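Render this sequence as a predicted structure.
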Amino acid sequence: MKTKIFAIPVLTCGLLLSGVSSLTAGLSGAIFTTNSSGTVVNGNQYDSPCSVYLNGGPGPHAPAHAAGLPDGDYYFQVTDPSGQQLLSTDPVGNRRFTVSGGVIVAYVGDGISPIHLTGPNQNDPGGVTIRLANLSCPSDFRPTSNNGGAYKVWVTPVSNFNGSPVLVDNPCGNGCFHGFVPSATKTDNFKVNTASATFCLTVQKLFLQSDNITLAPQPNWEFDVTDPLSVTNQFFTDTTGQVVVCDLAPGLYTVTENVPQSIPYSVIGLAVNNIPLSPATSTSFSWSIGQPAVGIVFQNQAQSGGGPQ
């Protein structure tokens, strides 16, 4: 008898570490986390809660529709690994999706709350991935209390949900987690390591045309970006008047336009993330984990006798 009692917690621990619930025999199929395009199969390490997407069905090297969820509508939620702390912040009805042919084919939502973005599933044509956080990310979902940065995503059929979909949380007694019953639920664990989070910087150059109305993109315009280590790199705008620099670490940055001597102009506008600033040829900003990507727009006007028209 003692040997039998000892074996049960060892098995349960192993299942939890693998990211699979020990009580999911009642629901066939599988779920896993991935990137927006679904090209990462069963990923479990992410640098931002905004980059974690839900997928279902095949594991590594499996056929496209292997282990697909049964057709129908489902709810999902994000919790800490124990399931005790609900981390999703929108109503359950806003976390609804549809499965057809064993593949997630649509995000439904409640039509009121911020939506959850979807991406084209590259492994399953016609299928989509669903971002676990809604458009308010990084506010949604909340940080986990787990010291290792671990989270758990849950999926259950709408017909098996125990509660009201208009509520965010649904207390439902022992053996039920925020309206999700383990015996009718699939789960998967993942981690978010925000220490490695990065962002993308987009800089755009626009010139006011001779009609004093039209703003046109200016290609081949040089911008110098000085990073937190005081290293300056040169970048040039493309045909859309933009340059995009990614994989930038947190810290202080300075962006300066390098003006060709042959193009006399005056500065008429500057905006950072759609917030107007005093017109200038240089601007500085600080980025920290959890903030959105940064977009800067410089607007200029050619002086008489020179410049783009």
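Summary. The CA atoms of residues 64 and 124 lie 6 Å apart. The radius of gyration is 25 Å.
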